[in-house]
Amino acid sequence: MSFLDHLEELRWHLIRATMAVLLAGVVAFLAKGFIFDVVLFGPKRADFVTYDILCKAAQFLNLDESFCFDEIPFRIQSRKMAGQFSAHMWTAIIAGFIMAFPYILYEFWKFISPGLHPKERKASSGFIIIASLLFFIGVLFGYYVVSPLSINFLGSYQVSKEVFNDIDLASYMGLVRTSVLASGIVFELPIIIYLLTKLGVVTPEDLKKYRKFALVGILIVSAIITPPDIASQVIVAIPVLVLYEISIFISRVVIRKQRKKEAKEKSLTKTK
């Protein structure tokens, strides 16, 4: 295929992926009550499952019981005429993207798979399932861990009792959206390292060498997306550190297979 033919093929893959996002977005748009009242505003309620677990854990370990509360003292308001409708539209699009993520990966895979060798296609057959699973785990982590920690801290923080927190709807939605999507992308780290290793950009030695810097970077990211308390940062940092170690293992396996393949090809060349 020529370069223009490849562009045409890519255009149709992008169109189909976009249509999938829009169709899933329409479903999310129609499910307004469930999406907003149950899902998005769930972390605002004191009976949210994360707060309940943390409260019981704190009581069991005789730690600070700051997660044992009856109410998060803030209200959500919309100060723009089209604020609620705009939030509804953008939420539907983001929800559509999350729900359609496996299909988006499928279209991406269909575009690149013709350029792979049969063995490479076979070895990467589980790409869509694994990448989708990691993304959804990250989304759930962002929703059940990062979002509640941030909402509880920022929503109850006061510089003075004279100031009441009236949180704008766009600000609240932005926090939840960022927490969920950022976590989903971060949990794709093993897939990203796998691809970079296959391309020869990184090696297990590089990942081990820069582990200390990665640790500092992970702690900085955890400090940015979570409240400024040690417990919250540790809760977020631990899964990311585990993902980094898994990425090193994956990179090592990829390099080992590549070296075996190269050694086999050399032996065949010498035989000939």
TrEMBL record:
Membrane topology: Multi-pass membrane protein
Keywords attached to this entry: Cell membrane, Membrane, Protein transport, Translocation, Transmembrane, Transmembrane helix, Transport
Record flagged with keyword Transport: yes
One biological process term in Gene Ontology: protein transport by the Tat complex
Main location, first listed in the record: membrane
InterPro entries: TatC (IPR002033)
UniProt-recorded Gene Ontology molecular function terms: proton motive force dependent protein transmembrane transporter activity
Transmembrane segments: 20-41, 87-106, 127-146, 180-201, 213-230, 236-255
Tagged with keyword Transferase: no
Compartments in which it is found: Cell membrane; Membrane
Any Gene Ontology CC annotation: TAT protein transport complex
Top-level taxon: Bacteria
Family: Belongs to the TatC family.
Subunit structure: Forms a complex with TatA.
Cited function: Part of the twin-arginine translocation (Tat) system that transports large folded proteins containing a characteristic twin-arginine motif in their signal peptide across membranes.
Name of the featured protein: Sec-independent protein translocase protein TatC
Source organism (scientific name): Haloflavibacter putidus
